[in-house]
Fold this protein.
Amino acid sequence: MTIPLKRLIFSVVLFCMCLVARADKVLVDSLMDQLEDVIAHREVFLAAKEKRLEDLYAALKSEKDERKRFYLLTDLYVEYHPFNSDSAYNVSLRQETLAKRIGDPVLVTNARMNRANILCTTGMYSETLAFMDTMRLCMLPEYLHPYYYHIKRTLYGLLADHAAFPAEKREYRIKTEMYRDSIMKVNAPSSIPYVLTKADALNNSGNPAEAVRVLKGYLEGKDISVHEQAICAWTLSESYGLLGERDAQKVQLLISSISDLRSTVREYVSLRQLALLLYEEGDLNRAYDFMKIALEDATACNARLRIIELNNSYPMINAVYIDTVQKQKMELKKTIIIIIVLILLLVLLMAYLLKQMRRISRARKEIEVAYDRLNELTDKLKSSNEKLSEANNAIAENSELKEVYIGRYMDQCLGYIEKIDSYRKSVGKLLKSGKLEELKKLVKSTSMTDDELKLFYDSFDKTFLNLFPTFVEDFNALLLPEEAIVPKKAGTLNTELRIFALIRLGITDSDKIAKFLRYSLTTIYNYRTKVRNKALGDRNRLEAEIQKIGR
């Protein structure tokens, strides 16, 4: 095999290991979430447990058959055994009393074995041994043999674990193995007691891999209870621990702990072992919380053996936890001090910014005042420009008017000179010929004057309407619709229109208007008043509005 090929194989193996490790981490995280959720809802499972106990007590109270009452007490004992040792012990006493009253020695023995089992759980080993020594296996029915071997195996296993001397420890281990073999002989190979005992034997004989195979083979396709799942997972965790497969051990401890708490078991070891494992990994907070819960449950159950085990581990974790908490408190204090300093700096900065904002506000107000003044000046300037524009327009208009009227005036003056010259020649001829009567008639005649006035007014109308072609329409727009003034002939003005045509030209004095139109002052005044009364809007503003026509 070439070196590159070796490297390739190594890389593939390493990649697969990484995938497996990643999968294990995902599984551990998921199970950890489930465990914390179960812990958070412990009261729900406790309520269900109490409901089962209440139902059993109710059934016991209503049951009259004493043998059936004994079996109901057995159910109570099973519920209490991993939950409350004191209550389980009291139930075993009630069982024994009832069995004696029934007069069934087998039931009496069964009750005594229950009591011995509780005594063993609470660490009263000598009392348990004394109880069990009073029982003869040959006197027991076969269905109690597995129970008998179980108690004996558990008792000697615990004695071996707590033996002070090697010789005693060895003796107790031999008896433990003996009773372990007995359990397997009296149970079917397909039963869970057999499988668990076999796996335990394989773990103790140094063959944990075979124990894993046996347990996994049994669990495939099996529908077991939550409590049985907890025991199987615990045994598997022991096997994986012996194999050094830490992640797999943690997975099984998590499964066992979840199952224990869901089944409301208070006498357990999984959560304590999980706490120790997490402590070794540095997950101190979870280790402390789980160990605390395990101690609370063991105390509530009065499981003295578990309390002793927990008291051996809890102080260590608690001390490290307290030390860590103290360090965290110190860090928190430092953080708080830093935060306080930052807050003070922030307050100072805010005060400075507030001061600056006040200055800016004052400056803004001053700018606003100056801006308002500037706007006022701008408005005034705009008004002045408008007035100047109006004045310029007026000047321009007046200039235009002057130009037009000067031209008309010069034409009329030339015409009048020619007419006067013609009139002078006519008078001279009449005088030269001595026709005095005809001369008198000529002098007294007003036809010439009337004709000239008519021509003058026609010329005025024509000139004015050339300058203001829409004057009549604009003028009538300022009057009520029914009061419109319309001249008889297009291109001409009547007396009322001429009066206001003169006003539009800037001739507002009634006396001048009267002389221009050869009317009395009263007549002119009446005309003006009459027209003002016809105004569509404010009558006092009528003449001012007329002066704006054509601009």
